[in-house]
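#struct-help
A.M.: can someone run this one for me? Single chain, 133 residues.
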Amino acid sequence: MIYDVLDHTADLKVRIYGNSYTSIFQNSVITISDLIMDRNLLKPGFNKTIEIEKNSPDNILVNLLNDILFYMEYENVIYFGSKLDFTENRLHGRIFGSSIPDNVEYRNVIKAATYYDLKVDPEHGFAMVVFDI
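D.P.: on it. Structure tokens below:
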């Protein structure tokens, strides 16, 4: 498993595994889509070039996750895979997605990735993210 759901009183807290910034970012794309719906129902058909430049990996992670939520809401596409590269506070690459199937059962309705308890720590092999639900 590339992530674990952790106990949290009101929101959705996850530990995303990865031993590099790149692997954490790539696994976060898989994680958010899996938290939202069954990825086995998704059929690849969309891809998008992304570039995020921020002052820290923490800001990049929150931005990436919130961008995926934005695309889901406004393009009706859920991105569930990626090929990304990270260098010096810049993330770039492609994300891969599917149109959202009709009558899909949502596992969680995620409003946003937050900065609460946020931690990106590839040296210890994980990132911690709390989602507002």
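A.M.: thanks! The first strand starts at residue 3 and ends at 6.
D.P.: also worth noting: The chain has a mean pLDDT of 97.
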